[in-house]
Amino acid sequence: MTKSPTANLRNPRSKAPPRSVHIVGTGSYVPQRVLRNADLEKLVDTTDDWIVTRTGIRERRIAAENECTSDMGAQAALRAMEQAGVRGEDIDLIICATLTPDMPFPATACLIQQKIGAKRAAAFDMEAACSGFLYAVEIGQQFITSGTYNTVLVIGAEKLSTITDWEDRSTCVLFGDGAGAAVLRSSGQTHGILTTCMGADGSQSDILLMPAGGARYPASKESVSGRMHYLKMAGKEVFKNAVVAMQTAAEEALRKCNLTIQDIQCVIPHQANIRILEALADRLGAPMDKVYVNLDRYGNVSAASVAIALDEAARAGRFQRGDLILLVVFGSGLTWAAAVIQW
Ligand code: ACO
After folding, report:
1. Which has the least CB within 10 A, 19, 35, 54, 178?
2. How many angstroms separate the CA atoms of 170 and 157, rounded?
3. C-alpha distances out from residue 23 to 27, 84, 181, Å
4. Is the CB of 46 under 6 A from ligand 1?
5. In this structure, are residues 299 and 60 in contact, taking their beta carbons and an 8 Å threshold?
6. 10 Å Cβ neighbour count for 47?
7. CA atoms of 226 and 212, how far apart (whole Å)
8. How far apart are CA 87 and CA 118, in angstroms?
């Protein structure tokens, strides 16, 4: 059968072949203040031993009172831009993935645009909880592949300490603050982002949420006294779903580019709990030394987690140019995503 001349084109309006998209720079930022498990022992009825055994977390970073999501996002962005050799005026689009924006509006991406001098850039936030950074990478990739933009800055930034209930021992030990960023550009080479996939299941939206502060329960005396402006989580349910969803997403991404886990040099997962990562590695058939872990130092930083991990792993030389890496995430929504990248 004769193939249609446009069969391989992703943008039907364009005659050019799809442009491959590469991460040309990464950056991350974590606040200076370290909150150790021993400090949490003084706040709630917990122990260092319980936290380390059940989660793998030893410490997390907490932003200063006047340090906001946009400040951390801008710092991470500037580091990614420096590595990429990109100036503010080169950026066409900024996507900030966050569930802790500086304020409901304007978008934190707009505040970051101003801080980094990206005057020409369009800017918006997107929320897919802990999956947000990879969702944003896929959106940014689509804008470049279609030929709409050349340079996209993707950021995951969170100040989770503001929505953490410091009286709830089952959640307050898990989270931290920070930001990570990546600059996406058409590489003009065959390598780059080989595939992405993402998914969601809204039927389980009630197992991980912050109930108040939106249209359903606007801020009121009752919402504040009911502690409804804090994150709530059914930990065991989230745990089970996280393992299955990340396994499924990772396998789908590998299948889409005809690869197996043996081809992958480094797996960079969302950093929620070491037991989730060990279960995931086991199901994928990956040895743990292939899996990048930094949750012992930062805890779960939601949308920023995988972005910080990617930056650290790249700078530490955990993979080289041409190596294949697998990113996989999971979060509230429920949401999940995976990407295979040839570095
Ligand atoms: N210190 C001491 N004891 C604690 C603590 C604590 N910090 N927290 C809970 N406990 C107690 C519980 O009260 C319970 O006691 P009980 O048996 O007397 O009732 C006992 O420890 C066991 O509690 P479980 O909740 O069953 O503990 P579990 O082994 O499931 O671990 C955890 C809890 C760590 C939260 C785990 O379920 C988990 O990691 N879940 C996934 C979390 C996750 O991935 N969240 C992020 C998703 S990404 C996003 O979108 C934000």
Report:
1. 54
2. 23
3. 11, 9, 10
4. yes
5. yes
6. 13
7. 10
8. 8
Please give the average per-residue pLDDT across 69-97, as a whole number. 98
Q: Which neighbouring-strand residues pair with 338?
A: 197, 328
The greatest distance separating any two alpha carbons of the chain, rounded to the nearest whole angstrom, comes to: 72
Quick check: CB of 70 below 6 Å from ligand 1? no
CA 47 – ligand 1 centroid, Å: 13
C-beta of 37 in contact with ligand 1 (< 6 A): no
pLDDT at 23: 96
pLDDT in tens, 282-330: 999 999 999 999 999 999 999 999 999 999 999 999 999 999 999 999 9
Write out the E strands in 218-333. Answer: 232-233, 266-269, 324-331
Residue 93: closest CA among 138, 134, 154: 154
Instruction: Indicate if 191 belongs to the active site.
Output: no
- Which entry of 110, 130, 197, 266 is annotated as an active-site residue? 130
Does 300 qualify as catalytic in the annotation?
A: yes
d(CA 77, CA 83): 10
Averaged pLDDT of the chain: 94
Query: What's the rounded Cα separation, in Å, for the pair 188 and 154?
Result: 20
Confidence grade of residue 17 (pLDDT, cut at 50, 70, 90) = low
Dump pLDDT digits (tens) for 95-114.
999 999 999 999 999 999 99
Confidence class for position 279, pLDDT limits 50, 70, 90? very high
Considering the chain, what percentage of its residues have pLDDT values greater than 70?
95
Tell me which long-range contacts 288-293 makes (C-beta under 8 A, separation of at least 24). Answer: 290/264, 290/265, 290/266, 291/266, 291/267, 292/266, 292/267, 292/268, 292/318, 293/56
Is pTM, for the whole model, over 0.90? yes
Ligand 1 atom showing the smallest separation from residue 272 Cα: 44
Please tell me if the CB atom of residue 6 comes closer than 6 angstroms to any atom of ligand 1.
no
Taking the centre of ligand 1 as the mean of its atom positions, its distance from the CA of residue 20, in whole angstroms, is 42
Beta strands in 59-202 (DSSP E): 59-62, 93-97, 122-126, 151-159, 177-186, 192-200
What tokens were used for 104? 């409901």
pLDDT of 144: 95
Q: Is 315 left (phi over 0), alpha (psi -120 to 50) or beta?
A: alpha
